[in-house]
Amino acid sequence: MPISEKIRKDMSQGSWIRRMFDEGIILKQRYGNENVFDLSLGNPVMEPPPEFHQELLRLAQHPLPGMHRYMGNAGYPETRVAVAKQLSLEAGLKFDMSDIVMTCGAAGALNVVLKTILNPGEEVILFAPYFVEYINYIDNHGGVPRILPTDERFLPRLDILEAAINKKTRAIIINSPNNPTGVVYSDGLLHQLAELLGRKEAQYGTEIFLLSDEPYRKIIYDGLKMPVSLQHHPRSILVYSHSKDLALPGERIGYIAINPTCEQREELTNGFIFCNRILGYVNAPALMQNIVRHLQQVTVSVADYQRKRDSLYAHLKEMGYSVIKPGGAFYMFPKSPIEDDIAFVRELQQWQVLTVPGSGFGSTGYFRISYCTTDKILEGSLDGFRKVAQKFGLG
Ligand SMILES: Cc1ncc(COP(=O)(O)O)c(C=O)c1O
């Protein structure tokens, strides 16, 4: 057997997102691209902002000496300085270059952080529904995922969290704005959560890291100001990505920022830099680092995403779906009108509408819609949503 038993088993469990994506390819071959309404992947159809292409062109026309060589594993000092400066403005904490490590996207950043902090068998708490790759990433580094339910608004329940934390708890991962629900955690909730972590650390004499995965931080609606997760707990680590804010998921560029008030920040950052190297990332892509350092204040059109959210939300409500209005990101997580979310998603598929069952995110009875797609595809999907709603007696 060329593949290890473990990987064979993990592969067979697979990801629902990828499965729907692959089935979509078959449907597109059968019905034609324009007749398949693929709302399965969080892969923005938006192009990067014009500033991105300007920087790319500038670098191509005026290459920097040595710009394709190896560099320090933390990334270019100039890029880390630019990130630290922007984060300081946004977070009200004073970051400097040494608090920042450039990574291959948020996925790379999460793996680097987990590799750095986890001892074998330590637990990492997740709140369902969650970004499904967290399970693989925790497993990659010998950790054990501990999955907790959320309340009816998809927010962590502090009573359940309090009961779940034990002396093996090493980290909790939060993700706001959230994939798959679009909910944004309030400042008050973050404060209470941090207070609880501090209390539990004192009770068990342990260190518990708050790992805040925020690739959607800049995609936030209704003029809401993004609460700062790092402000409340000293042992907090931010993971960021330019996959969504600059629509660059194929370019693999993001970063880790350690809370500058964390006493162990130097040791931690050295660990991150080392793990970036030994995991084989070596460093974040050089070309992208040279570009994004000039784009720290640039974002794709959030107004456009908000318009898509408003339109889709209004249609789904009118059809009778039960759905929480997202405050950010580009996903919705409506309730499935029947208990079996997989059967429901299959039903939508009959109308060439591709979504992902909630089971793929650890929450049965729901389904995820990704609306980072064209208006044409979103409009085209409405007929299918309506037909299935009628079939199951909504409205
Ligand atoms: C919640 C969450 N975390 C992390 C990632 C990984 O992002 P990146 O492309 O930066 O690796 C994604 C991508 O969709 C995501 O939704």
User: Which value, in Å, is the CA radius of gyration?
Assistant: 21 Å
The largest sheet, given as strand count, sense and whether it forms a barrel, is: 7 strands, mixed
Q: What average pLDDT do the residues reach?
A: 95
Share in β-strands: 5-15%
User: Span between N and C termini?
Assistant: 53 Å
Could you walk me through the main structural features you see in this protein, from its secondary elements to its overall organization?
By secondary structure, the chain is of the alpha/beta class. Helices cover 42% and strands 12% of the residues. The strands form three sheets. Strands 2-8-7-6-5-3-4 form a seven-stranded mixed beta sheet, sandwiched between helices. It has a three-stranded antiparallel beta sheet with strand order 9-12-11. β5, α8 and β6 form a beta-alpha-beta unit. α3 packs across α11 and α5 packs parallel to α6. The longest helix is centred in the middle third of the chain and has 18 residues. Bound molecules: pyridoxal-5'-phosphate. The site of pyridoxal-5'-phosphate has 13 residues, from α5.
